[in-house]
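Team,

Forwarding the record for the chain on the shared tracking sheet. I've put the sequence and predicted structure together so nobody has to dig through attachments.
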Amino acid sequence: MVGCTSIKLNLSAWESEARGIPFENQTSEEIHSRELSPLLQPRAVGYTRFAQMLRSKDVIKLTSRRHPRDG
């Protein structure tokens, strides 16, 4: 697994636990599927609330970066 997949796997597991929904170990392909992910999409949060979250110092933001030619 690469870094972004590992991070998304952990975030998904933590979100599932926090929301009390089952989370099965998923393949690296499944973990990136929007339909299978317990993580909310920006549209589900709402544009206004999502923009507020991006500006808030109380919300932790993560990012990763890799060269586009690296696997």
